Amino acid sequence: MRILGIDPGSRITGYGVVNVLRNGKVTYVDSGCLRIPNSTLAGRLKTIYEGIAEIITLNQPDMVAIERVFVSNNADSALKLGQARGAAICAAVNHNFEIAEYSALQIKRAIVGKGHADKVQVQHMVKALLGLSGKPQADAADALACAICHANHWAGDGALRRGLQGQVSARVTT
To answer: Would you tell me the crossing angle of helices 119-130 and 138-173 to the nearest 10 degrees?
Structure first.
């Protein structure tokens, strides 16, 4: 299973791609940042859309996960972030993906063990979990963390489904 994680931003959008092996191990595939040129809002959104579409074409993920918008005190920043997120979601949806969404709190809790971890802690844990030789750039690390969070969630849901199916068939046969 290959998962694309996205950390949306109106200036820098991070992406990270991981594989989930049959034994549940998560391995690194690709990561980086789309650096959005200083242009009109429409131009920036187009860059995000086209960049995510290209990453999907190159990496052929099976699933896409994205960080939810963080509600801040600055309404203008939150609006721009939401629009950047929408452009990334549209690119994935146009490739027929359902989108898994996680809050920053959920992602940090899954990676670091606490929801209020800072970027340096996330970078350190992503490096350790994926066995990378160096720390990924902060936005790429956040995107990889999102993908790892989804891998853990997906694996947990699968185990739960398998367990429940076993219970149902055990009840039927007894």
So the answer is: 60
